[in-house]
Amino acid sequence: MTRWSPGTRVSLVLFDLDGTLSDSAPGITSSMRTALTHHGLEVPRDDVLNSFVGPPFRVSLEGIGLPPERVDEVVTTYRSDYEAGRLFENELYPGIRDVLAGLADAGTTVAVATSKPQATARRIVEHFGLSPHLAGGLEGVFGADVTNPRDTKADVIARALAHLQREPDADVVMVGDRLHDVEGAAKHGIATIGVSWGYAAPDELRDAGAAAVVDSADDLAALLLPGASRPLD
Fold it and tell me: Which residue spans adopt a coiled-coil conformation according to this UniProt entry (predicted)?
Protein backbone atom coordinates (compact mmCIF):
# COMPACT_ATOMS: atom_id res chain seq x y z
CA MET A 1 0.00 0.00 0.00
CA THR A 2 1.34 3.45 -0.93
CA ARG A 3 1.58 5.90 1.97
CA TRP A 4 1.50 9.68 1.97
CA SER A 5 4.83 11.40 1.47
CA PRO A 6 5.84 15.08 1.78
CA GLY A 7 4.67 17.13 -1.18
CA THR A 8 1.53 15.06 -1.71
CA ARG A 9 -1.85 16.70 -1.14
CA VAL A 10 -4.12 15.06 1.39
CA SER A 11 -7.87 14.56 1.42
CA LEU A 12 -8.23 13.34 5.03
CA VAL A 13 -6.23 14.37 8.09
CA LEU A 14 -6.67 12.65 11.45
CA PHE A 15 -5.36 14.75 14.32
CA ASP A 16 -4.38 13.54 17.74
CA LEU A 17 -5.64 15.84 20.52
CA ASP A 18 -3.35 15.94 23.59
CA GLY A 19 0.08 17.31 22.72
CA THR A 20 -0.93 17.92 19.11
CA LEU A 21 -3.87 20.31 19.03
CA SER A 22 -3.68 21.41 22.65
CA ASP A 23 -1.32 21.53 25.62
CA SER A 24 -3.35 19.51 28.09
CA ALA A 25 -0.54 18.46 30.43
CA PRO A 26 -1.47 20.77 33.35
CA GLY A 27 -4.92 19.26 33.86
CA ILE A 28 -3.90 15.68 33.09
CA THR A 29 -0.90 15.62 35.41
CA SER A 30 -2.81 17.35 38.24
CA SER A 31 -5.62 14.80 38.07
CA MET A 32 -3.21 11.86 37.84
CA ARG A 33 -1.35 13.17 40.90
CA THR A 34 -4.67 13.35 42.74
CA ALA A 35 -5.64 9.82 41.71
CA LEU A 36 -2.34 8.21 42.66
CA THR A 37 -2.28 10.00 46.02
CA HIS A 38 -5.89 9.01 46.72
CA HIS A 39 -4.97 5.35 46.33
CA GLY A 40 -1.81 5.62 48.43
CA LEU A 41 0.52 5.17 45.48
CA GLU A 42 3.81 6.88 44.80
CA VAL A 43 3.60 9.88 42.48
CA PRO A 44 6.37 9.77 39.86
CA ARG A 45 8.56 12.69 38.83
CA ASP A 46 7.06 15.48 36.73
CA ASP A 47 8.84 14.33 33.57
CA VAL A 48 7.37 10.85 34.00
CA LEU A 49 3.89 12.27 34.57
CA ASN A 50 4.25 14.39 31.44
CA SER A 51 4.97 11.21 29.48
CA PHE A 52 1.45 10.04 30.43
CA VAL A 53 0.01 12.64 28.07
CA GLY A 54 -1.07 10.91 24.87
CA PRO A 55 -0.81 7.14 25.34
CA PRO A 56 -3.61 5.06 26.88
CA PHE A 57 -3.31 5.34 30.67
CA ARG A 58 -3.13 1.58 31.08
CA VAL A 59 0.10 1.59 29.08
CA SER A 60 1.58 4.43 31.14
CA LEU A 61 0.51 3.10 34.55
CA GLU A 62 1.70 -0.43 33.88
CA GLY A 63 4.90 1.16 32.55
CA ILE A 64 5.69 2.60 36.00
CA GLY A 65 5.09 -0.75 37.63
CA LEU A 66 1.48 -0.42 38.75
CA PRO A 67 -0.09 -3.89 39.04
CA PRO A 68 -2.73 -4.43 36.32
CA GLU A 69 -5.42 -5.08 38.92
CA ARG A 70 -4.97 -1.55 40.32
CA VAL A 71 -5.04 0.30 37.02
CA ASP A 72 -8.83 0.50 36.70
CA GLU A 73 -9.34 2.07 40.14
CA VAL A 74 -6.70 4.72 39.49
CA VAL A 75 -8.14 5.53 36.06
CA THR A 76 -11.67 5.79 37.49
CA THR A 77 -10.52 8.26 40.16
CA TYR A 78 -8.49 10.18 37.59
CA ARG A 79 -11.45 10.56 35.24
CA SER A 80 -13.76 11.73 38.02
CA ASP A 81 -11.31 14.46 39.01
CA TYR A 82 -10.38 15.42 35.45
CA GLU A 83 -13.91 15.61 34.09
CA ALA A 84 -15.03 17.73 37.04
CA GLY A 85 -13.16 20.63 35.45
CA ARG A 86 -9.45 20.00 34.99
CA LEU A 87 -10.00 19.01 31.36
CA PHE A 88 -10.19 22.75 30.70
CA GLU A 89 -6.74 23.40 32.23
CA ASN A 90 -5.66 23.29 28.64
CA GLU A 91 -4.83 25.62 25.74
CA LEU A 92 -4.49 25.38 21.98
CA TYR A 93 -1.01 25.48 20.52
CA PRO A 94 -0.20 28.60 18.47
CA GLY A 95 -1.51 28.49 14.91
CA ILE A 96 -3.51 25.28 15.29
CA ARG A 97 -6.91 26.89 14.78
CA ASP A 98 -5.68 28.38 11.50
CA VAL A 99 -4.32 25.03 10.31
CA LEU A 100 -7.70 23.37 10.86
CA ALA A 101 -9.56 26.25 9.23
CA GLY A 102 -7.20 26.28 6.26
CA LEU A 103 -7.63 22.57 5.69
CA ALA A 104 -11.41 22.76 5.93
CA ASP A 105 -11.50 25.75 3.57
CA ALA A 106 -9.43 23.77 1.06
CA GLY A 107 -11.98 20.96 1.10
CA THR A 108 -9.87 18.57 3.17
CA THR A 109 -11.75 16.27 5.53
CA VAL A 110 -10.53 16.88 9.08
CA ALA A 111 -11.17 14.66 12.10
CA VAL A 112 -9.76 14.01 15.57
CA ALA A 113 -8.58 10.55 16.65
CA THR A 114 -7.53 10.45 20.30
CA SER A 115 -6.98 7.95 23.09
CA LYS A 116 -9.06 10.19 25.34
CA PRO A 117 -12.59 8.96 26.08
CA GLN A 118 -14.74 10.17 23.19
CA ALA A 119 -17.20 12.17 25.31
CA THR A 120 -14.36 13.99 27.08
CA ALA A 121 -12.59 14.74 23.81
CA ARG A 122 -15.77 16.21 22.36
CA ARG A 123 -16.18 18.50 25.37
CA ILE A 124 -12.67 19.84 24.84
CA VAL A 125 -13.11 20.33 21.09
CA GLU A 126 -16.38 22.16 21.71
CA HIS A 127 -14.76 24.28 24.44
CA PHE A 128 -12.17 25.51 21.94
CA GLY A 129 -14.75 26.06 19.18
CA LEU A 130 -13.04 23.70 16.75
CA SER A 131 -16.05 21.66 15.67
CA PRO A 132 -16.93 23.87 12.65
CA HIS A 133 -13.66 22.75 11.03
CA LEU A 134 -14.32 19.02 11.52
CA ALA A 135 -16.22 16.55 9.37
CA GLY A 136 -19.72 16.43 10.82
CA GLY A 137 -18.82 18.79 13.65
CA LEU A 138 -18.45 16.91 16.93
CA GLU A 139 -19.26 13.69 15.05
CA GLY A 140 -15.76 14.11 13.63
CA VAL A 141 -14.17 13.52 17.05
CA PHE A 142 -13.28 9.87 17.66
CA GLY A 143 -12.02 8.69 21.03
CA ALA A 144 -11.40 5.67 23.18
CA ASP A 145 -14.13 3.18 23.98
CA VAL A 146 -14.28 3.33 27.79
CA THR A 147 -15.99 -0.06 27.92
CA ASN A 148 -12.85 -1.67 26.48
CA PRO A 149 -9.79 -1.14 28.71
CA ARG A 150 -7.54 -2.53 25.97
CA ASP A 151 -8.74 -0.07 23.31
CA THR A 152 -5.77 1.16 21.26
CA LYS A 153 -5.00 4.08 18.98
CA ALA A 154 -5.30 1.70 16.04
CA ASP A 155 -8.83 0.84 17.21
CA VAL A 156 -9.77 4.53 17.37
CA ILE A 157 -8.41 5.12 13.86
CA ALA A 158 -10.34 2.10 12.58
CA ARG A 159 -13.60 3.56 13.92
CA ALA A 160 -12.80 6.94 12.37
CA LEU A 161 -12.14 5.41 8.95
CA ALA A 162 -15.32 3.33 9.13
CA HIS A 163 -17.49 6.28 10.16
CA LEU A 164 -15.99 8.52 7.48
CA GLN A 165 -16.30 5.70 4.93
CA ARG A 166 -12.67 6.08 3.93
CA GLU A 167 -9.94 3.67 2.93
CA PRO A 168 -6.40 4.26 4.25
CA ASP A 169 -5.11 5.57 0.93
CA ALA A 170 -1.99 7.62 0.18
CA ASP A 171 -3.96 10.86 0.61
CA VAL A 172 -4.77 10.05 4.25
CA VAL A 173 -2.40 11.16 7.01
CA MET A 174 -2.24 11.13 10.80
CA VAL A 175 -0.81 14.06 12.77
CA GLY A 176 0.42 13.29 16.28
CA ASP A 177 3.06 13.85 18.93
CA ARG A 178 3.81 10.35 20.27
CA LEU A 179 5.02 7.01 18.97
CA HIS A 180 1.57 5.56 19.72
CA ASP A 181 0.13 7.81 17.01
CA VAL A 182 2.73 6.62 14.51
CA GLU A 183 2.28 2.96 15.41
CA GLY A 184 -1.52 3.11 15.49
CA ALA A 185 -1.66 4.73 12.05
CA ALA A 186 0.93 2.32 10.65
CA LYS A 187 -1.33 -0.62 11.47
CA HIS A 188 -3.66 0.79 8.80
CA GLY A 189 -0.89 1.66 6.36
CA ILE A 190 -1.27 5.38 7.14
CA ALA A 191 1.71 7.73 7.38
CA THR A 192 2.13 10.10 10.34
CA ILE A 193 3.43 13.65 10.51
CA GLY A 194 4.95 14.12 13.95
CA VAL A 195 4.79 17.44 15.79
CA SER A 196 7.73 18.32 18.02
CA TRP A 197 5.79 20.60 20.38
CA GLY A 198 4.11 17.73 22.22
CA TYR A 199 5.38 15.25 24.78
CA ALA A 200 7.62 12.90 22.82
CA ALA A 201 11.14 12.13 23.94
CA PRO A 202 13.93 13.30 21.60
CA ASP A 203 13.94 11.25 18.38
CA GLU A 204 10.87 9.26 19.53
CA LEU A 205 8.81 10.17 16.49
CA ARG A 206 11.52 9.59 13.88
CA ASP A 207 12.55 6.33 15.52
CA ALA A 208 8.91 5.20 15.42
CA GLY A 209 8.81 5.85 11.68
CA ALA A 210 7.12 9.25 11.28
CA ALA A 211 7.14 10.36 7.64
CA ALA A 212 8.10 13.88 8.74
CA VAL A 213 8.47 15.88 11.96
CA VAL A 214 7.53 19.57 12.08
CA ASP A 215 8.40 22.27 14.60
CA SER A 216 5.60 24.78 14.03
CA ALA A 217 2.04 25.15 12.79
CA ASP A 218 3.38 26.99 9.73
CA ASP A 219 5.56 24.00 8.87
CA LEU A 220 2.60 21.67 9.36
CA ALA A 221 0.40 23.77 7.07
CA ALA A 222 3.13 23.78 4.41
CA LEU A 223 3.15 19.97 4.38
CA LEU A 224 -0.60 19.51 4.45
CA LEU A 225 -1.38 22.30 1.99
CA PRO A 226 1.48 22.39 -0.53
CA GLY A 227 1.58 25.74 -2.28
CA ALA A 228 -0.06 27.68 0.53
CA SER A 229 2.25 30.61 1.16
CA ARG A 230 0.32 32.74 3.66
CA PRO A 231 1.88 32.58 7.16
CA LEU A 232 -0.55 31.57 9.87
CA ASP A 233 -1.87 34.32 12.14
Answer: none
H or E, element range at 81: helix 68-83
CA of residue 217 relative to chain centroid, distance: 15
Q: What is the pLDDT of residue 233?
A: 44
215 is catalytic: no
Q: CATH number of the domain at 60, please.
A: 1.10.150.240
> What pLDDT, on the 0 to 100 scale, is given for residue 230?
45
Amino acid 1: pLDDT: 63
- Which residues constitute the domain of residue 67? 25-88
> What is d(CA 129, CA 213) in angstroms, rounded to the nearest whole number?
26
Percent of the chain's residues with pLDDT above 90: 85
| Annotated active-site residue in 16, 155, 177, 181 | 16
Residue 227: per-residue pLDDT: 66
Least confident span in 46-55, 180-189, 214-223:
46-55
**Domain's final residue, options 88, 118, 137:** 88
Concatenated DSSP letters for 89-151? Answer: S-EEPTTHHHHHHHHHHTT-EEEEEEEEEHHHHHHHHHHTT-GGGSTTGGGGEEEE-TT-TT-
Measured distance CA(174)–CA(210) in Å, rounded: 10
Same-domain check for residues 103 and 162: yes
